[in-house]
Amino acid sequence: MNLKKIIDLHVHTAGLGLGDSGCFVTPKLRRNWRYKIYLRAFGVREEELRSAGDRLAFRRISDGVAASQVVAGAVVLALDGVMDGRGELDLTRTEVYIPNDFVAAETANYPNLFFGASVNPHRCDALERLEQAVELGAVLLKWLPAIQGIDPADEALIPFYEKLKALDLPLLTHTGDERSFTRSESALGDPQRLHLPLSLGVKVIAAHAATTGTNGGERNMERLLRMFPTYPTLYADISSLTQLNKLFYLPRLLKQDAVLDRLVYGTDFPLISTALVSPWYYAWRIPMREMARIGSLSNPWDRDVELKMALSVPAEVFFRGKELLKLSRAGTGLAGAAAAAGPQEQIRAASP
Ligand SMILES: [Zn+2]
User: Fold this and answer.
1) Which of 64, 87, 213, 220 has the most crowded CB, counting CB atoms within 10 A?
2) 235 beta partners
3) What confidence category does residue 350 fall into, taking pLDDT thresholds of 50, 70 and 90?
4) Dist CA 156 CA 208 (whole Å)
């Protein structure tokens, strides 16, 4: 039986603009301590990127996923920039730009990588770009509203949402506070701004389940949780939920029966490889020997899956991404993934 069937739908790449990738990072963000930790977590040095180009990061991700015992594929996310008043990319206000063409071309080189597109709906040619992204094999669309200057509740976006629905492309959008950048508009990460796309029937995946931050005097996660019974196309990913700054969110989330069958697996790689995540932060939940065993796993994806399972994430959650994503290339990478001896009986039992 092939046990490698888990898809990680939330993986970031590094792009410094090297090797004609078209990527862009402001010098200010590049000097930021967070960015340095981020690159280190990738296992790439800036010198290596300089000689091999930004595409090296895709090789590293693909190799890491290939070495995982349980994760078969990863969705690597592009990141569109901020738009000016004419709907053109505004580089003076964009801190990071990872173009769709680059991510589409690189993910196509690896059977275990999938293309997560990013289109700012304020682009003058946003709808065409959505269509192009799907032609290039996009399995979802990623937004970071607080960074990209997108208000999901803006009624001007209705044609964009209708196109997303027609293309059956899920929208993975950041909810909760965003602190990886030097400036951010936290109000745009309020999950209550997602009523509009949900009422139009768009599949929305609330990235990070709205962990961290408050709006309207209330925690963002609480504002998200009460939306699940109303909207059958609402999902939330469990990426970043094992971070040190989020220890109490996962137990809260898992207590909600209405939410369990809408959770979907993601890692937020490379952040799972930083000091922000460790089984040792869970001495109050996980037996010592189990923490040591998980901590000793060298593969970041195996460590992440096992840690989340030890924290009682139901096995079904890990397999949900495959149903949810627009996997036009389904079968290519997954069918070819080598059978592996799964470390968790639960994964075996739940494996579809
Ligand atoms: Zn992320």
Assistant:
1) 220
2) 205
3) low
4) 26
Q: What is the pLDDT of residues 37-56, one digit of tens each?
A: 888 888 777 788 888 888 99
Residue-wise pLDDT for 203-235, tens only, equals: 999 999 999 999 999 999 999 999 999 999 999
Domain CATH number, residue 35: 3.20.20.140
What is the share, in percent, of the chain residues with pLDDT greater than 90? 67
Residue 110, helix vs strand vs coil = coil
* DSSP code for 24: E
Domains of the chain: total: 1
Residue 175 to residue 191: CA distance in whole angstroms: 6
- Tokens 């003076």 correspond to what residue? 92
Chain centre to alpha carbon of residue 301: 13
Taking the centre of ligand 1 as the mean of its atom positions, its distance from the CA of residue 10, in whole angstroms, is 6
Provide the CB-side half-sphere exposure for 129 (13 A, CA).
19
Question: From the CA of 329, how far away is ligand 1's center (Å)?
Answer: 23
Q: What's the rounded Cα separation, in Å, for the pair 149 and 170?
A: 20
Residue 352, classified by CB atoms within 10 Å of its CB into exposed (0-12), middle (13-18) or buried (19+), is exposed
330 pLDDT above the threshold of 90: no
Q: Residue 102 domain-assigned?
A: yes
Task: Tell me which DSSP letter residue 78 carries.
Answer: P
Q: Which structural domain, as residue segments, surrounds residue 198? A: 6-350
Q: How many CB atoms lie within 10 A of CB 345?
A: 9
Residue 128 falls inside a structural domain: yes
Interval between CA 1 and ligand 1 midpoint (Å): 32
pLDDT at 331 over 50: no
Instruction: Specify if 1 maps to a domain.
Output: no
**d(CA 289, ligand 1 centre) in Å:** 30
Query: From ligand 1's centre to the CA of 236, what distance in Å?
Result: 13
pLDDT score for 335: 37
**Ligand 1 mean position to 128 CA, how many Å?**
25
Which residues are within 8 A (CB) of 88 and not within 5 positions of it... i.e. 6 or more apart? 123, 124
Please tell me the distance between residue 180's alpha carbon and the centre of ligand 1 in angstroms.
9
pLDDT confidence of 285, banded at 50, 70, 90?
Answer: confident
The answer on pLDDT for 9 being more than 90 is yes
- Residue 197 domain-assigned? yes
